[in-house]
Amino acid sequence: MYSEEIQVRTGDHETVRDITDECARFVRGAGSPDGLLHVFVPHATAGVAIIETGAGSDDDLLTQLRELLPADDRWAHRHGSPGHGRDHVLPALVAPSMSVPVLDGRLALGTWQSVCLVDTNGDNPTRKVRLSLLAG
């Protein structure tokens, strides 16, 4: 197994950040042609998703998360910025980990698929992402 932690800047507002290029660079550096890339976010308020980006799907995802998880005072978890409790519920809807097949040294994603970090917590502008390649 080959593993590395990367830092991803998400800023001070909710975002869907495409990390496909970072994942592809990691896989190329791992030196194994086949395997399984595991992507894990070691945070209680972020997740990872495979979605299309750039055509509005990333914005649509954030819109739906705002509807499902409003940033208001309904949440029992109350530290941080107003509505921060919703950020702690996010990983139940957008999982903190995923796996992607690696074939011939490349991510086996579909044409429009991207690996994305989903972060609704503006209190933490930088996130860690653990990339691990399980060689086949």
UniProtKB/TrEMBL annotation:
Looking at the record's lineage, which domain of life comes first? Answer: Bacteria
> By its UniProt entry, which SUPFAM superfamilies does this protein fall under?
YjbQ-like (SSF111038)
Family in the record? Belongs to the UPF0047 family.
Q: What is this protein called in UniProt?
A: Secondary thiamine-phosphate synthase enzyme
